[in-house]
Amino acid sequence: MSENQNVSATFQTYMENPLLWPILEVLRKKPSGWKVHTLSAHLNELGLVPILDGLPEKDLFKRNFLIMNALYQLQETLYPDNWLQVCAMDIVLMPSQHASSHAVDHEDPLRDYYVHWHNYEAEEGEVKRLLNEFWTRYRKFVGSTNGVDMDRAKALSLFELPHDATQPDIRKRWRKLALKWHPDRDNGNTAKFRVLCEAWNVLRH
Q: Which of 22, 51, 53 is nearest to 39 (CA)?
C-alpha cells in the first residue's frame, strides 16, 4: 500500500461522524419507528444538520449519507451490548437480549458504501471541515464550548491513556467513555460527558 493510499485508508477508517451521539440520544428516547428521512428531519429541528448543498437533490443525498454513515458507526460502537438495526425505512435500537442473535456484517455492500467517506462525493478536506462544523454544533448542543484549559496531556490523562497512544486507541477509548457517561444512560453524567467531549475535541485531530 502506498503512503497516499495509507493516509486515505486512515481517513476512511478514523473520521468519526459526530451525528453518532445525538442519534444515540434520539434512539434511546424512542428506539423504533424511525426512517432515515424522519430522523434527518428531527436532527434538523435540533439544529444539528445544516443545509449541505445548494441543489436540493444533492442536499438530500448528503444528509442521507451522513445519517447512514453515523448509524453504521453507531451499530459497531454499541455491539455487542445492544443491536442497532440499520435499515433506511426501519431503524430500531434493540436491547441486549437481541444482540446475541446478530453480528456486524463487514461484508455487507450497503455498509461498505456508507462507511467510506469518498462516496460522500467530496474531497477529504471538505469532509473534514464538515465534520468539524458538526462537532462544533454538537459541543454547543451539549453545553460544552470552553475547553480553553484542555491540552493534549490533560486530555490523555482523562482518557487514562499514555502519551504515545495511537489514534485508533484514542477513538476506541473515547467511544467507550462516551457510552459510559452519556447523559442519556441510566448512570450517565452530563458534566463528565461535557469534559470528555472537550478532551476528545483536542485528541481527535
A: 22
pTM: 0.88
DSSP 93: E
Q: Which pLDDT band, with edges at 50, 70 and 90, does 100 fall under? A: confident
| CA pair distance 133, 127, nearest whole angstrom | 10
Q: Which three cell numbers stand for residue 67?
A: 445519517
* Residue 141, amino acid: F
Strands 92-94 and 83-85: antiparallel
Q: Is 34 helix (H, G, I), strand (E, B) or coil?
A: strand
> ∠ CA(160), CA(27), CA(75), 5° rounding?
60
CA-closest candidate to residue 17, choices 59, 64, 60, 58: 64
pLDDT digits (tens, 9 = 90+) for 153-198: 999 999 999 999 999 899 999 999 999 999 888 889 999 999 999 9
Strand partners, 85: 92
Contacts for 168-177 with beta carbons within 8 Å, 24 or more apart? 168/13, 168/14, 170/203, 170/204, 171/14, 171/16, 171/204, 174/16, 174/199, 174/200, 174/203, 174/204, 175/77
Helix (H) or strand (E) run with residue 84 in it: strand 83-85
Mean pLDDT of 68-92: 94
Q: Which range is least confidently modeled, 13-22, 76-85, 158-167?
A: 13-22
